[in-house]
Amino acid sequence: MLTRRDFMQVTAATAALLGGTGGIAQAAARQALTQAELLAFKPVGQVTLLHFTDIHAQLMPLKFREPSVNLGVGEAAGLPPHLTGREFLGHFGLKAGSPEAYAFSSDDFTSLAKDYGRIGGLDRMATLVKAVRAERPGKTLLIDSGDTWQGSYTSLKTDAEDMVDAMNLLGVEAMTAHWEFTYGEARVKELVGKMKFPFLCGNVVDTEWEEKVFESTAFFERGGVKIAVIGQAFPYTPVANPRWMMPKWSFGIRDDEMQKSVDAARAKGADLIVVASHNGFDVDRKMARQVKGIDVLLTGHTHDAIPDVVKVGNTLLVASGSHGKFLARLDVEVKDRKVTDFKFRLIPLFADAITPDAEMAAFIAKVRAPHEAELKKVLGKTEGLLYRRGNFGGTFDDLICQALLEERDAQISLSPGFRWGASLLPGDDITGEDIYNQTAITYPAAYRSQMSGQLLKDILEDVADNLFHPDPYYQQGGDMVRVGGLSYTIDPKKEIGSRITDMRLASGEGIDAAKTYTVAGWASVNQGTEGPPVWDVVSNYVTRKQVVNLPEKSVVKVVGV
Description:
By secondary structure, the protein is of the alpha/beta class. It is built from 19 helices and 23 strands. It has a six-stranded mixed sheet, covered by helices on one side. A five-stranded mixed sheet has the order 3-2-1-12-13. The chain has a four-stranded mixed sheet with strand order 17-21-15-18. A hairpin with a 2-residue loop joins strand 5 and strand 6. The chain is globular, with a radius of gyration of 24 Å.
């Protein structure tokens, strides 16, 4: 017979299981995921390509919400990666509520995050890389498409040396770049000298003689196949980031140079041409049509996680997500210098299902140890979901914008449409590390300046054109600049100068083109910008508020789509 005392004990135990940090459902969900299942793969052909991109210096597992809005324009409208939520799941045959739904979409993110936990972590990635290499000895090649050195407190404090050391330990065999260049020309060259693998950026030339600054191509032999890897850095680096940090280097898409590199690699006996690119998905989709002879194009920059290969003619286009959430595996069979068969899997790195690699875990602990107090310092708490990704806004960006408004005493705030930075669930603490994960850049000054209404409109129009120009070669990736104290209407399908209308202050007053407004922002590309570091601004705001609650709001009205 069950006594009252027994009943109370059972009730307490059940409550503990159902609540707290886990719960029966969460525990069952996580136990259903195994490392063996994540690695399950029937090999094909002679070569296994492993790929990741846009890790943004994230050494630790995290939660990261994929976008709920990712509009495509022109011929890209309605095509991957411009599908989100249930539409994305339906297109790829993924079941709602499944681990894959959590990893690849924003659908029911908060609930699924509680079920499936954190994703990523470089020690987990190292485990999978070593496992695949053991399975396919002499046949595996690990490639990084860039945005590796920037995006965390430790990368900022070590001037990216932590990430170079981490990639050497992981055994990366080739990479290209974008945010890497924001450490400045001298530091980039110094770090490249510490790398145990090639830094491939064939589209970067010096401004005086237009000679290549870095290698364009590296050759490897795997499984008896001669492989050429060609690197393509982000072509708009000096526009999207400070020109003064790389004044002697010129960038660009340079299709003609890419074609020359492909042809030269074939002439040197390459059986398989692989491009590691940081162009962004839509740009690479066009490049795959423009440049002949690319067998595999490993794309980066736009952070797209696509669970299937996208074929463009004879080119296999692979998008491997961001933040260390995924490791892509592409097996290819090569005959007579052509890919005759392939198999692909984009593997989500569910942290609780993967045994951390001891060597990498020890390295990460060593890197973080001197900074633990700052990283773990609790500044406040969030009542709502904080996330960044989305074409027009994210709640973490709303937090940054609100901090700029209040701490810098401004009418309007502007925050860049960056796509990097982890998500926090309702009830989570906000730590120092969380703030740096959203703001860790080498030009962090939070400015306060006067701008005319016309200049504000010009800024929004310019960013919108970078995002929604119908020709992918004029797109720079990223998302719309985030705004605080301001609302507007946008029609992405219109031409530059006509997309932005009905700009209003938070009070409802219309923006006057001739009037001047006090604006706060950060990440200005202009040299000499003054102001406190943005992480101090946001940290001070959170510390003062203690509890933040920023529900999703609609300050941007989208029409015409």
